């Protein structure tokens, strides 16, 4: 058996685009042992899965990466049902799903129709108001005026509903649509993540105690999950995430499964419990990192002075945490999820970023390439600058079109296997560039 080479692993966020990692990781694990793994947002999920599989392998169980891939393959069948809105937020969730790229040209209309009770109520109210005010108007004026007021009433009703949810309800729901736990519709995202982490790390046998950072450290696996502390506007990285802060068990019980809460706070716990940063359940760090603004509720904490702290999407401050390994002497495999320009649709989906090659010079006299260049500069300026530094780590990219992955929570069953196949190709591309790794 070939000796495994030690590598660090850095994974970029990208919501459902992270399915690329599910294809790449088992391919890479056949040759590499992941010494340290870092991830943000959706990359945090893949990083935690990789760390859990490496933990299993370090305990003599080689099946962790196969379980990782099997669990990931479940997503096309259950992805839409994993995102469950808090009561009252269902129309907003439906609108968000319909507005995602790749959902068709009629997505705006479908998003608005999610508020159909408010549309009907507003239209009826507007029509009734016109009847009361119009008096003995001509028939055509009745039709025209009634239709106009009905339309205005419908728009006003939807605006009032959205405003009430955002300004009155959202602050009480941690500024997110989905808490992560089941809302009565079967298994939700955090429930699924907990079950997947437990199975990947410990096998199919049930285990009450959740996988913790201390478990990983004891087996030589360094997991670095990034979340954004909104109170300080800075990233926090495990095992320091939440150090010095506390949480209210009653609040976290809305966000984490009972088994995790029993690990964090027994029934006799005080109103405030210190966050056990070095012994934090892996699920807590992942859930904090993937708290995508508006979609997922932020994770609340309490500062020593009693002030409110919120942990949100790690991608807000560090979407691609390859920087965590810039001074690490061990080689790092850095996986980037890049957007394929529409004009490059026929090019390979896997590549290694060449710092000396900037590609074609775009025609910046047109609006579309001008906006595209702005987005690339905002998202990738730091990455491209770092790639040009002497001795920089190679950045391997899996490239997707604008309508693949991303915020597409209602992806078809065929799309997820396709993304995983891109990941397998990316893994093979990396190994081909490193055919005989040396420890």
Helices and strands, with pairings:
Elements: E1 5-11, H1 19-29, E2 32-40, H2 42-58, H3 64-73, H4 75-82, H5 90-99, H6 107-113, H7 116-134, H8 139-169, E3 176-178, H9 189-202, H10 213-218, E4 222-229, E5 234-237, E6 246-247, H11 249-252, H12 258-264, E7 273-274, H13 282-289, E8 294-296, E9 299-302, E10 308-312, H14 315-318, E11 332-339, E12 350-352, H15 367-387, E13 395-400, H16 415-433
Parallel strand pairs: 1-2, 1-11, 2-4, 3-8, 11-13
Antiparallel strand pairs: 4-5, 4-10, 6-7, 9-10, 12-13
Strand content: 5-15%
Oligomer: single chain
Helix content: 40-55%
Measured on Cα atoms, how large is the radius of gyration? 24 Å
Count of strand segments: 13
Estimate the mean pLDDT confidence.
82
Structural class based on helices, strands and sheet pairing: alpha/beta
Tally the helices: what do you get?
A: 16
End-to-end C-alpha gap: 15 Å
Question: Could you explain how this protein is built, in words?
Answer:
- By secondary structure, the protein is α/β, with parallel strands linked by helices.
- It is built from 16 helices and 13 strands.
- The protein has helices at 19-29, 42-58, 64-73, 75-82, 90-99, 107-113, 116-134, 139-169, 189-202, 213-218, 249-252, 258-264, 282-289, 315-318, 367-387, 415-433; strands at 5-11, 32-40, 176-178, 222-229, 234-237, 246-247, 273-274, 294-296, 299-302, 308-312, 332-339, 350-352, 395-400.
- Helix 1 packs antiparallel against helix 3 (64-73), helix 2 runs parallel beside helix 9 and helix 2 (42-58) runs antiparallel to helix 13 (282-289).
- The model has no long low-confidence stretch (mean pLDDT 82).
